[in-house]
Queue: 3 jobs
Job 1
Amino acid sequence: MILDLFAGPGGWSHALYPVWPWVGRTRGLIASPPCQAWSMAGKRLGLVDQPLVHEAVANLAAGRDTREHLLATCQDARSLLAAEPMRYLHALNTVGEPEWVAMEEVPDVLPLWKQYAAILRRWGFSTWTGILNAADYGVPQTRRRAILLASRAHTAQPPTPTRAQVTEPDFLFGPGRARWVSMAEALGWSATDRPVPTVCAGGGPGGGPEPFPSGSRQALANARERGNWQPRHTRSNVVLEPQTRGAGRTTRHDNRGPTPTAAPAPTFTSKATHWKWSLRSNNQTNATVRSIEEPAGTLFFGHRANECTWIAEPVTAPPEDDAAGTPDPIRITAREAGLLQTFPADYPWAGNKGQQFSQIGNAVPPRLAAHLLAPHLNVPLDPDDFTLAA
């Protein structure tokens, strides 16, 4: 069997879908400790607690559990959860298990993963640690994460990237790489259609009605009265152009890959205005803003400052009488966020909307997980697939 610590909504195990009758031994161990104590989206008290976490790991590796004592000094009670995998690893190592280990966290946890790697090497593992960008593996999101890979049977090394920021042609010694998967491709939004997400009611953070951004309900009502709102699929003259903004991390892509057929969705129309749609990562002034023809920035949720919203800007200056018809920001749906994490569209998220977004933002993208796990399981992997079902 494979032991999945901190399983969350199943990012690792959805990619795995174990169906083999593993009996009698633990073949692998997966761990993604909660990142809230370390994440840039929070107070990052895990960095303050980091020496205590290193001490806890060293003690657990020697068979001494001092976490209860160390917890009294921690600034964030969740920090020591990053040491929990070592408790399992020490116990399993006494019987020569597991065969392999895969662990993931936010980039600031990399020094801790290096400590784990040093211990595992003493126990006979080959190890690799480093930072990987999920976009390089077909995830429509530039999510950077610290990874630890360890194996008793193979040389531990990162998977070969299958995607690149710009298309790379084939060369003498091997194939090239297609460009990063865009949000438009992942969501099935055609480059010739106006991709406005469906506006749904019900299911706010506390389980009540879905809250709209300030003024958006009135803006939608006004648009309907002016005839600028058409609740149908339209193929009017729309130009979607990538933007080059958002913390200096966006890039214009001039070549497009295959685009899935767009599904019908409510759309704003304007007689003389073309819109370019982008995803804004939060409500802060320095929020990452990405065109739909690019991957999303790292998705994270938890409070209103971290809401992701679709925003539209005119490509051409609208006439004065049309200016008021500019669509207000619309919150991303759980289904859309899940797709940008490479979960299936019908993935059964649990709980109210707030709980669902929390699960999505903290999950390992299954497509990235599949690339990390395939070598350990000796399973062939299609570069754009994300399940390792037997």
Job 2
Amino acid sequence: MKAPEVRGLPRTVLRLHRTAGIVWVAFVLGSVGCLVWLNMVTADSVRAARAGCDRAEGFCPDRFAGHEYMSLMGWVSTLVYYSFWAVAAWAGGALIGRELETGTARLAWTQGVSPARWLTAKLALPALLIVLGGAAFVPVYRWAWSANRDLMGDDWTFADVFAARGPAVVAYGLCALAVGALAAILLRRSLPALGVAVAAMVLLNRYLERHREELWPTVSSPARFELSDDVWHRKDGTYHPPSHFWPMNLVETGILLAVAATATTAAFWLLRRRTV
């Protein structure tokens, strides 16, 4: 009788947290749909409006239509980038913290499900959804960001753009999931775990953003040489060319995944110590 219960644990987790899963899927699909609409529909209307301004005399408000396009693109990347706040809050408060606080987890452990299996199922399904969501969003965002460069600026150094164009945005979500789980197991109360998880991720994010320029060696700026607008300038006279995006993004991704692995290992170790 125990084996079916163990095999059915992922289904139980999915049923308990199906609302959160539906919200996440809707959020990712909505973001992807918005990007497609902006590039397939809005971009052409913006160009048409600008063309009309070129033929008009005097002030033409449609001349600045591109700013709205840039703003909407920016909002999509910002919302997806900072979604790790919601992941951390949910993992600490609802996924793990609430079940430990109410005793639901201990009840499951008496039904033939070991604490390690319970935690594995709790983390595996959300992690899969985060990875699949990132696999859908990142390629579409990269296409959307590069498809209409004449309507956007060249600043790839914005925090949300930098993360959303690569795997770092997925790594932030996985790291938030692991940190939220660790906070919940450590505190065993949903609201404190929620607050600690979000605060820890905010601090980590701010630290990485502040030191992002140091993740890869810079290039020296030749004297009397005017750099293009698409480079990342530094105060010491060095800079990062656009070709540094991938190594910098991958280094940040590696740091986040290392933190996630450490937090996950600590969560399993702490859970085992407290349930032996």
Job 3
Amino acid sequence: MSVPRRFSYLLNEIHFRQLNKSDLEDYLPLVLAAYASARELNIHFDAGYATAEQAIAHLSQHGVYGMFDGEKLIASVTLRYPWGPLPGPFGLPHLGWFASDPCRRGERLGGKLLDWLEREILMGQLRVPAYSLGTALEHPWLRTFYKQLGFEPQHTANLGKGHTTLYMKKILDPALHDRWLTGRSL
């Protein structure tokens, strides 16, 4: 018995989960496709040039989360921890390798993935006051995109990658963030 076409969307459901190395076959092509526009702009983000070996190491060393439509991986984001091998600049969780399916532009996949990550992982499990990310200052639209998601520019750095990195931070809990800042200055 076939399902009428107009109801086929009910068969696919959006869900989220942490990725691991068994997801490599879906993960690496998504990341490389998502970073194609950065490569065209000659902006060197590590994710845009990742090999299978680098992606396996990345999946093993960080919290990498995926958004799925049914069985299809449609977006992913990495959470680098302050205690891990690539901590961010603020002593907070730091995003990296943020990717969404370029064929699904306009569906706000990245925003939906970050909404889930903030609610379930950052606030629900880790209870962090804020988190950060870095992007290329020279990129024509990423800074605006991240500002629309609630990130605020903090400072820039030259990491030797051919662009200036703009670090941005998003505060999730202002009161907890104030207490965290006070604790850091002691």
